[in-house]
Hints:
The complex is a heterodimer of chains A (107) and B (116).
Chain A: E1 4-7, E2 10-13, E3 19-25, E4 33-38, E5 45-49, E6 53-54, E7 62-67, E8 70-75, E9 84-90, E10 97-98, E11 102-106
Parallel strand pairs in A: 2-11
Antiparallel strand pairs in A: 1-3, 3-8, 4-5, 4-9, 5-6, 7-8, 9-10, 9-11
Chain B: E1 3-7, E2 10-12, E3 18-25, E4 34-39, E5 45-51, E6 58-60, E7 68-73, E8 78-83, E9 92-98, E10 105-106, E11 110-114
Parallel strand pairs in B: 2-11
Antiparallel strand pairs in B: 1-3, 3-8, 4-5, 4-9, 5-6, 7-8, 9-10, 9-11
Amino acid sequence: DIQMTQSPSSLSASVGDRVTITCQASQDISNYLNWYQQKPGKAPKVLIYDASNLETGVPSRFSGSGSGTDFTFTISSLQPEDIATYYCQQYDNLPLTFGGGTKVEIK
Amino acid sequence: EVQLVESGGGLVQPGGSLRLSCTASGFTFSSYSMNWVRQAPGKGLEWVSYIGSSSSTIYYADSVKGRFTISRDNAKNSLYLQMNSLRAEDTAVYYCARVGGRGTHWGQGTLVTVSS
């Protein structure tokens, strides 16, 4: 199974700050990576697919980069509505595997 | 618009059974593989099972192998998860999901609670 190591597990930042989350795969997954946002009581919502493509309707302050084993997710200017838990997920191989999540809070 | 709607969750005793359903609309269901993913209360996301578009390929997580059975009815645009011998650790929200880059969509989930 491909292990996805996501960090940090939580972070606290101020409105307007740049926020960065990393995800490392245990083997090469090319660009087969999704980034999700999940708010309490809601299903995960895809923000970024294929590692760097912004899903339709998602604000441009969200971005993703990387390929192979190392990936980065960035919120360029944190907004209050961005409070959520974020997950990376690889779909190169079954079983689908997820990072452990990053809980983002406002300082 | 792609929609995935799960149903069938509820409270069940340890050792009991439950059948989850997921009804798809807005896309050609028979052309896509599908998955079940679960999330225990306060925990992360765990993939449970995969079924190919024609049901010829099926995979399970080790944690559910031998107890859960995934199936689909392409004529009814429906995905199923038969869950037997349920345990307390199976308590979770269960999501059906079409996963694959741009085409990724998740349902809203259905809660399964295993408790006496």
